[in-house]
Design goal:
Distance between the termini: 25 Å
CATH class: Alpha Beta
Radius of gyration: 17 Å
Order of helices and strands: HEHEHEEEHEEHEHEHEEEH
Structural class: alpha/beta
CATH topology: TIM Barrel
Strand content: 15-25%
Helix content: 25-40%
Number of helices: 8
Largest sheet: 7 strands, parallel
Strand order of the largest sheet: 1-2-3-6-8-9-10
Length: 234
């Protein structure tokens, strides 16, 4: 646990120093992923998240992988996180980890009960998943927004893979007053183009060396964005 906390705080401070606007904690290394986490994963994640929130000067968000909304809301509330992310919310999907059939009404009722003041960002037709019920990207976004999410996240097909501009444009054009985030593949070469349409980005792969945040890469990304007049990077 000490090593996990040290690693999390290292990444936190690197992102703060680089000028990021927030950080998102995910337990991606708890593999193989399952829809709902076990007790050991939940308890250890809560301890790490608490230490990050106590030491953070920027907003902290949490996501319990793979799609454990119950634990995500409970942890977010207990550690005073400001936002959370769910990979699957309105889309029935399959993946290498099995099928997920979400109940957005039930999810939102739990959020209102447990974490009413915490923002919720949800992916639509998310990476690494196959849609079980065919529908348009705009329909998925509409359903998520109708349930009251604070932002929808658009991704490509895989982690680190650039999100197609066509997908970002479609969702933003259909819902110009809603917050649309890019959830995968943002780097210093495409951030200006992507955030000329989207309202923000969740960045990971392109600013890492191995599994750690690289301060130089993270700083360069922020510099490129700010030089273009963009001030919205997580």
């Amino acid at each position: 646990m000490d090593a996990c906390i040290k690693k999390a705080l290292y990444d936190l401070h690197a992102l703060e120093q680089a000028g990021f606007d927030g950080v998102l904690l995910e337990n991606d290394n708890d593999q193989p992923h399952t829809e709902f986490a076990n007790q050991a994963q939940i308890s250890s994640f809560a301890v790490i998240a608490r230490e990050v929130c106590k030491n953070a000067s920027i907003p902290v968000g949490v996501q319990m992988m793979l799609n454990d909304w119950k634990s995500t809301f409970a942890i977010a509330t207990s550690v005073d996180a400001k936002f959370c992310r769910l990979d699957v919310f309105v889309d029935d999907v399959s993946s290498q980890w099995g099928e997920i059939h979400p109940d957005p009404e039930k999810i939102m009722l739990e959020k209102k009960k447990i974490a009413p003041n915490i923002a919720i960002f949800t992916d639509i037709q998310v990476k690494h998943k196959t849609m079980l019920i065919k529908k348009s990207l705009e329909q998925s976004a509409s359903e998520a927004l109708d349930y009251g999410v604070d932002a929808v996240i658009v991704t490509g097909d895989a982690t680190g893979q650039e999100t197609p501009m066509e997908k970002i444009l479609r969702v933003k054009k259909a819902f110009p007053k809603s917050i649309v985030l890019v959830g995968a593949g943002v780097n210093s070469d495409n951030i200006v183009d992507q955030l000329s349409v989207a309202d923000g980005a969740i960045v990971g792969t392109s600013i890492k060396i191995g599994t750690c945040i690289d301060l130089e890469k993270a700083t360069n990304l922020v510099v490129v964005a700010k030089e273009a007049g963009i001030f919205k990077v997580v």
